Amino acid sequence: MTATGSAGGLSQCVLRPPAEPVALIQKAVVSVVRCPICEREFDPAAPDAVKPFCSARCRTIDLGRWLGEGYAFPAARPRGESEDDAAEGADF
């Protein structure tokens, strides 16, 4: 912006574009994610997407795997305990 006018004050302001044009419109970034259950690629912004799954069906399948103990975290042994000690103490 530059000012032109009398010496005592600003009488008129003139707006000039910047030396280099600035992009005002950003390109839409489409992110595609792969569903961990069916491995289908999907847009997470889709209305039927249930993140991180592509659908409620895949979310339910994953929940069933957790509840059916299809997934498990490895058990950490306390320090100093060997495999033999752990086997002796397990009375399942």
Short description:
21% of the residues lie in helices and 11% in strands.
What name is given to the CATH topology of the domain at 31-70? Erythroid Transcription Factor GATA-1, Chain A
Work out the radius of gyration.
31 Å
Architecture (CATH level 2) name of the domain at 31-70: 2-Layer Sandwich
Determine the CATH superfamily of the domain at 31-70.
Erythroid Transcription Factor GATA-1, subunit A
Largest sheet: 2 strands, antiparallel
The proportion of strand residues reads: 5-15%
- What gross morphology would you assign? elongated
In the predicted model, the low-confidence regions spanning at least 5 consecutive residues are none
Give the mean pLDDT. Answer: 74
By DSSP (H or I, 4+ residues per run), the number of helices equals 2
Tell me the strand order in the biggest sheet: 1-2
Helix content: 10-25%
Distance between the termini: 81 Å
Kindly state the number of beta strands.
Answer: 4
Could you say which structural class the secondary elements and strand pairing correspond to? alpha+beta
Secondary-structure element pattern, one letter each:
EEEEHH
CATH class of the domain at 31-70: Alpha Beta
